[in-house]
Amino acid sequence: MRKFHLLLASVFLISGSLLSQTGDPSNLESEFKIDYEKFTLDNGLEVILHEDHSDPIVAVATMMHVGSNREKPGKTGFAHFFEHMSFNDSENVPVGANRKMIPEWGGSRNGGTWSDGTVYYEVVPKDAFEKILWIDSDRFGYMINTVTQAALDREKQVVKNEKRERVDNAPYGYTDEIIRKNLYPEGHPYNWTVIGQLPDLQSATLDDVKDFYNKYYGAANASLVIAGDIDVEETKKLVQQWFGEIPSGPEVSSLDPKPVSLEKSKSLYFEDNFAKLPELRIVIPTVEDYNKDMYALRILGQLLSGSKKSPLYQTVVEEGKLAPNIGTYQSSSELAGEFIFRVRANANTDLDSVKLAIENGLKRFEQNGVSKDELKRIKAELETGLYQGVSTVLNKAFQLVQDNEFNGDPGYLATTAKLTNAVTSEDVMRVYNQYVKDQNYVMTSVVPKGQTELAVEGSEKAEVWIEEVKNDVASEEVSQGEEAEYEKTPSKYDRSEPDFGKLPLFEAPNVWTSEMANGMEVFGIENNEVPLVQFEISIPGGQLLDPKGKAGVASLLSDLMMQGTATRTPAELEEAIGLLGASINMYTSNEDFRISGTCLSKNFDETMKLVEEILLEPRWDKAEYDRLKKALATNLKGQEANPRAIASLAFYELLYGPENSFGIPGSGTLETAEAISMDDLKNYYSKLSPEDASFHVAGSIKKNRVEEVLGDLAENWNNKAPEIKNDRIAAKGEAGTLYFIDVPDAKQSVILIGKLALSEKDEDANELVFANEILGGGSNGKLFQTLRIEKGYTYGAYSGVSENLEVSPFYITTSVRANATLASLEIIQEMVKNYANDFGEEEVELTQNKLLKENTRAFESLGAKLGILRDMSKYDKSEDFIEEKQKALMAMDQEDFKEVINEYLNEQEMIYVVVGDKATQFEEVKKLGKPVVELDIYAEKLEAQDQQAAGE
C-alpha cells in the first residue's frame, strides 16, 4: 500500500546497543533477545512463532523476498503494484473482503514494498486469529486466478494516485528519482524508484501480473512470523493446514551485494513547483545492510549532526544560520548503501553557502575526532530505542521476519546490538576516511520555481518525467467489473471461512491516581512488559493563552525551553538527556502545554530532575531565541508549499474565524511570528501553573516511586493558574459554499469538507464517533470503498471528529486525481446527504462489532495508555470510561444512529475546501451547484480583478 518506511525505521531503532544497568556502554551484562521458535514447512516456507500473552491480540507478518530490485527497466514499480493487486480478491475469500473484513473484526492491516522486499501484516483480536491465517494464506497462495482486467485497471489508478499524492504533488517529491538515476548506473536494481514510472504502470498487462506471481510468490521465497497471544503447538498445526499447500515456486536466486562507485561527482538542480525553500542533498555510495561497517556509519551520521555539539550542526545551523537543522545518516539496503547529507535551508539561501558550511564542518570533525561522551550518548539513546522497538507485538514480528528473510537468523537482534555496542572511536574515523572523506557524490539542489540562482554553482538541470494534467475523467474511468471465472485450486482441507474463536474480553488497565501538594493531579498505569517509562505533564492553556496578534508564542516558548537551563548550555542539556538514554520534549496544542518524555525505568529519577530543571530554571538564551524564530519563519514558509497544509489552514479559519485560536495554526503565521518578542515568551511562562495541571505516567514503575520523585517538583512549583477564556467563534465560511485555492499544475486536488460539531465533553460526543465509523472510519468505510476501491480516484478517503474541550469539527478528507475532482465531490455530497437514510440494522451491528473488538488492541502501547490517562484528566472521565463507552455503543439502536447523523452531519451546513489546479478545475467545481469563492493560500478572499488576473 505504501513504500515501507516503517519496517526499515524500526530495524534501525531496534539495532541499538545493549548497555549494562550502570549505563556504561563498554559492558554488556546480559543479552536482550526475543524468544521464538522457527520451523520450515515442506514447501520451503520458513515460519517463526513468538508467544506474548500480555494482550489478547496476534500479529501476522508475511515477507516476500521481492522488491523493486527484481524489476527491469520498462517494468518499474511492479513489485509495489503487485502488492496492491494482492489485496483485491482470492479464491476462497469473498470479493473485496480483504480490505473490508479485517477492520470489521477489530483488526488493522496493510502492506509495504521497498527496494528489497514486500511485507503484508495484520494485527487482530485473538478470536480472529484463524480467520487471519485463512485470509492471509489465501492472498499468498490462491489469488492469481481471480485477477481480472477490471481489477488491473482499477489498481493502476490507485497506484497512480498514490504517486501523485506522495511524489508529484509534494515538495521535493522528485528528489529520490533524480538521485537514483544518477547514483546507480542503468541496469542497476536501484536505478529507479520503488513506485516506478506511470507509463510503466499503465502498460502492465494481466500476463505481467501472472508472470510476476509465478516467479516470485512461491512459499520458498518468503518468511512468516506470528507473534502474540498464541499456543505454539496449536499454531503449528494451523500453519500447516493453511499455508502447507502453497506451491514452493521456482528457485529465486539470491542477489549478491552490488555496491557502486562514482567516477566523478555529479551536481544537479531541479525547479520544484511546490517547494518554497531550497534543499541540498549529498549522497555518497557506501555499504549494504548487515555489512559490519554499517554500524559505525550509522553512529557516524549521529556524530556529524545529531546534537548541538556536532560539527555540522555548528557550522550550518549555529554559526552559518543557514537552516533550522541538518541531517546526516547511513541508509543500507540489501545490495548497496548510501551516506546522506540533507539540508532544507532558510528561504532565499544560496546553497553554495550550505555546501561550504558542510565542508567546513567535516574539516572540524577531522581535526577534533570522535568525542567519547558523544559516542556514549548515542549508545545510551540506542539502548532506549531497542526497547521501544520491541514494545508491541507487531514490531516484534517485523524484527523477526526482517532478520530471518534477509539474514537467515530471526534472532539476529542480539548480534546487531553487540556489533553496534562494539563500535569504537577508531571504527568511526576509519569508516569516515574510507567511505565519506574525499569521495565522489551525487548532489541535488532542489529550488523553488524561478529561483535557479540558489542552486549550487555549476549544477546541471535534472531531467524528470512529469505527468500532464488532463481534464478528461472518462479516459481513466474504472469500475468493479466482472468477477473472474476459474476452477478453484484443489485442497485436502476445507478452505472456507473459519469461525471466530472465543471472544477476548477487553480489560481496562488499572489506573492509580494521586494529588501533589501544589495541586497537580497524577494518573498512572503500571506496565512491566519492557523496562520503559513514558510520561507527560499537561498544563491547560496552550494556544488559548497566546496574546492577540501573536499566535505561536506558546509553540515558540516550548521550543526555547528545551534550549538549555540556567546552569546548562543547550549542548550540555542535550548531552545530559542523551547520556540517560532519555528523550524530553515540549509541545503545545490549542488547549494544552505539554512536557513529555521517555526513559528507561532505572533512569526515571534522573530524567525527572532534568524535567524539573527545564521547567523551573529556563535559560532565556537570546542566541537560541533568534535561531528558533528564524527557523519558525523557515518552517512556516515551507508549509506554503504543502497543498494539505494550505487546505487545513483555510478550513479551520473558515470554521472558527481569524480571531479564534482554533482558526490559526498553532505555530502561528509569518505575520504573527514576526511580532513575537522574548518578553512575550517570559510573560507566557509566568502562567505555567501546576494548579490545574496533570502528570500522566505509564510503564515499569510503581506509584510510590512516582510520588517520591515528583515531591521536589511539587514543592518548588507553586504559581497560580491564569484564567483561560475561549475566543468567540466568528466563522468566515458560509455553510453550503465551496472555497477554491489555486495550486498551479497540481496533479491532485485536496478536498476538505466539514462543519463544527461538538465538544468532547458533549453527551453526544461518543455517539457521533460511533455514527461516523461506517462513513469514513477506515478502509472499510464508504468513502474509501467508493472513491478508491470502486472508482480508483484516490489513494485514501476518510472522515472523523476532532476531540477538544472547544466545539470541534466533523471533517471529510481526501486527495483525488485532478480530473476526478468534480466526480469525487458529487459522490461525497450524495453519500453524506443519504447517510442517515442508508444507515440500517446491518450498519448498526457492523459498527458495534468493529468498535467493540478494536479495544482489544487499541491500548497496547505505552503511548496509548498515556492517552487513557489524558482523557481522564482533561475531560473528567471516570476510570472505567472505556467500559462505559462500550456499553453506550451496544445500547444504541438504528434510530439513535439516525438521530445523531441528522443532528450533526447535515450536508447543507458543511463548507467545502478544494485545493487544486485552477486552470483545469475551477470551472469544473462550479458544476457542483454550490456558490464558489476563490481564496489565496492564506485563506484570504480574492477580489474579482485578482481572480481574473490569476486566471490569465
UniProtKB/TrEMBL annotation:
Protease among keywords: yes
Keyword line: Hydrolase, Metalloprotease, Protease, Signal, Zinc
Domain spans labelled Peptidase M16 N-terminal: 47-171, 527-647
NAD in keyword set: no
Residue span of region Disordered: 473-495
Signal peptide boundaries: 1-20
Domain Peptidase M16 C-terminal: 204-382, 676-851
Gene3D superfamilies xref list: Metalloenzyme, LuxS/M16 peptidase-like
UniProt feature, compositional bias: Basic and acidic residues: 486-495
Protein family per UniProt: Belongs to the peptidase M16 family.
Name of the protein described by the UniProt record: Pitrilysin family protein
